[in-house]
């Protein structure tokens, strides 16, 4: 079943939209505070001040709720920046990722969602879809750079964008070092240098 047809992923307006927004905000707060293992639909309903039956009927499971939360996060993400150069565009991308991961709530939320994805196929599919949307949003920066002659023809834009954020996620999940602007700028610069050298030509 696709994410678009899963419970809770429809985009209705009016009161239903307000309920969805309140529940997703509450779910994000709960995930950031307690992690996926302790995400409880009844607690989310209490936080959102909606009936438990509404939450269970629309989302069904904690995984269904996480899937819809990721879909909403992808929709609400900040649009890509165009600076006129690949280095400037990728630096903007890296700093956006850094701000997100360094934010107390958002960083904890991403750790919780990534943890969920390691043990639940549906959560993993939702996470993969989220990043596919974000990478596709920024890929034109690389395509434009190729058109300007900044990188070789045939450079895979998706691989370049992935290379920008990978060091920041490593810091978040593996080394424990807080992502900072220096790490963001360094990751962007390394991705640009590798792209210019043809490392991502397919």
TrEMBL record:
Residues 17-77 form the HTH tetR-type domain. The keyword Transport does not apply. Keywords: DNA-binding, Transcription, Transcription regulation. Residues 40-59 bind DNA. This is TetR-like C-terminal domain-containing protein. It comes from Streptomyces synnematoformans.
């Amino acid at each position: 079943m696709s994410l678009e047809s899963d419970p809770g992923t429809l985009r209705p307006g009016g009161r239903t939209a307000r309920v969805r927004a309140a529940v997703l905000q509450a779910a994000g707060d709960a995930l950031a505070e307690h992690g996926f293992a302790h995400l409880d639909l009844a607690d989310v309903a209490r936080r959102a001040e909606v009936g438990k039956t509404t939450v269970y009927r629309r989302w069904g499971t904690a995984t269904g709720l996480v899937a819809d939360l990721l879909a909403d996060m992808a929709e609400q993400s900040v649009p890509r920046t165009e600076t006129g150069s690949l280095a400037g565009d990728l630096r903007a991308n890296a700093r956006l990722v850094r701000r997100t991961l360094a934010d107390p709530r958002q960083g904890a939320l991403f750790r919780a969602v990534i943890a969920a994805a390691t043990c639940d196929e549906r959560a993993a599919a939702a996470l993969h879809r989220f990043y596919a949307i974000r990478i596709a949003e920024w890929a034109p920066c690389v395509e434009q750079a190729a058109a300007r002659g900044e990188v070789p023809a045939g450079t895979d834009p998706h691989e370049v964008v992935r290379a920008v954020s990978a060091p920041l996620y490593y810091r978040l999940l593996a080394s424990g070092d807080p992502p900072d602007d220096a790490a963001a700028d360094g990751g962007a610069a390394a991705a640009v240098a590798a792209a210019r050298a043809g490392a991502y030509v397919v």
